[in-house]
Every structure is written in structure tokens, then in C-alpha cells.
Design brief:
Shape: globular
Structural class: mainly alpha
Largest sheet: 3 strands, mixed
Strand content: 5-15%
Number of strands: 7
Distance between the termini: 18 Å
Strand order of the largest sheet: 6-5-7
Order of helices and strands: HHHEEHHEEHHEEEHH
């Protein structure tokens, strides 16, 4: 399962971080490395425990919708003072239950609609959250941590390439325009839809960073219609 592999890669990354890395700033301001990890640990512990999930969602509910930022805030709030080795150990301990519960919810209640407020204002099927968004979130935050700490993320076609391909499919469905997209790197590939659309070429990770709302690295910005298509947001 993609989620299990991604959890494992994230665990390996944070377990080898030196003490001085935990205070480095990240691109997810105002979080430093420690707070970003606290968010991921909180989300994973929620996936591993229906009671913890319910507690977090109560804090994030606004009317009938769940908003991402308040949920993330409570995840960080309850873990911001946890020592880094303990955070890493808690994350590792939550993996198996998180994978099991996510699969169970996807099977048993995957068609249930879930209204999501800021920042996307959409209605999702629960299966989309369990099968796609949670895995993307951990993956993108692994990239964030690598960028913050000066490391190259471990990437492979059979794992990261599948995550990127899923992001591309989601992105294409959201904008509905023809395109040819060439993504470089181990997680990349060639993707196309329709005829007469712009041709975009960029790194696979940079593509995902762009559609997640992060700033694209200098030199990777497409121009014209391609730039407008890359402004189509995809949930992570």
C-alpha cells in the first residue's frame, strides 16, 4: 500500500535528523521542522485512533464543514513540546494502526460525503481523503523536510511515481483543458490529454509543489497558458 511505504519513508527521515535540524525553518511558515513533524504525527495518530480523529475534527468543524487549518493547529498544539525522539517514536508506533484504520474507513464508508471548508471549499468522498489526500500530505511534508534540512528526498518510480501520477490525474480533471506534461526525475513521466494544449516541462516534485500552492523553484516556472494551468490547486 502506498500509504504504508510513505509512512515508512517519513519515519526513516525523521529518525535520522540530527538535533540541530529540528529548529530549522520550513516553507510551511510558521512551522519549523519540529512543528511540521508534530502536525504529521498528529494526523497519523488521528488516523490510527477513531477517538483521536473525532477529537481533532470537533476542533476543526465550522458549521457543517471541516476546515484544514484548525485541525492542523490542534495537532501541533498538543505535540509542540514533545521531544523530537519521542515524536519520531510515536510516529513509528502509529503507522500500522493508521494504515489499518484508513483502509477500513475507505472500504466501509468510502462513499460518505465530507464537506471541507477553507482552503478548498469542496465536498469530498471519504475515500478520497483516506486513499489519496492523507498519503499526499505525508509525501509533500517529506519533501518539505528534505528541503529544510538540505537533503535529497528518496524517490522511486514505483512509489513516488504513482503518487505523482495520481496528482496529475486529479489536476487534469480539475482544469479540464488539453495539455502535454513532461515531468523529469525518478517520479516523473509523460502525461497528455486532448490536442492543441500547452506543452509543460518541469521536475515532478516541482510540479507537485506548484499545484499544492508552494512556490516553484526558480527556472521551473512555465509561461503563458502552462502557468495558468499550474495555478489549478490540488489538495495535499
Amino acid at each position: 500500500m502506498l500509504a504504508h511505504t510513505e509512512y515508512g519513508r517519513f519515519a526513516e527521515l525523521i529518525e535520522r535528523l540530527p538535533p540541530e535540524a529540528w529548529t530549522l525553518p520550513t516553507e510551511c511558515a510558521p512551522w519549523d521542522v519540529r512543528l511540521l513533524v508534530a502536525h504529521v504525527v498528529g494526523a497519523t495518530e488521528a488516523n490510527a485512533s477513531p477517538l483521536e480523529m473525532a477529537r481533532q475534527l470537533r476542533r476543526g468543524r465550522r458549521g457543517l464543514a471541516i476546515e484544514v487549518d484548525p485541525v492542523s493547529a490542534v495537532q501541533v498544539e498538543h505535540r509542540r513540546r514533545v521531544d523530537p525522539p519521542v515524536l519520531a517514536a510515536r510516529f513509528r508506533a502509529a503507522i500500522e494502526d493508521a494504515v489499518r484504520w484508513r483502509a477500513r474507513w475507505s472500504r466501509s464508508a468510502g462513499a460518505v460525503p465530507l464537506r471541507v471548508g477553507a482552503p478548498v471549499h469542496e465536498t469530498w468522498r471519504l475515500r478520497y481523503l483516506m486513499d489519496a489526500v492523507y498519503t499526499r500530505d505525508v509525501w509533500m511534508h517529506r519533501v518539505d523536510l528534505c528541503r529544510a534540512t538540505g537533503q535529497e528526498p528518496a524517490l522511486s518510480a514505483d512509489h513516488d511515481g504513482r503518487i505523482v501520477a495520481d496528482v496529475v490525474a486529479d489536476w487534469a480533471a480539475r482544469h479540464g483543458r488539453p495539455f502535454v506534461l513532461t515531468l523529469s526525475g525518478p517520479a516523473g513521466g509523460l502525461f497528455a490529454r486532448g490536442a492543441g494544449g500547452p506543452e509543460l516541462t518541469t521536475d515532478a516534485v516541482e510540479f507537485c509543489r506548484a499545484v499544492s500552492g508552494r512556490q516553484v523553484a526558480p527556472g521551473d516556472e512555465p509561461e503563458g497558458t502552462g502557468a495558468r494551468l499550474l495555478a489549478t490547486p490540488v489538495p495535499f
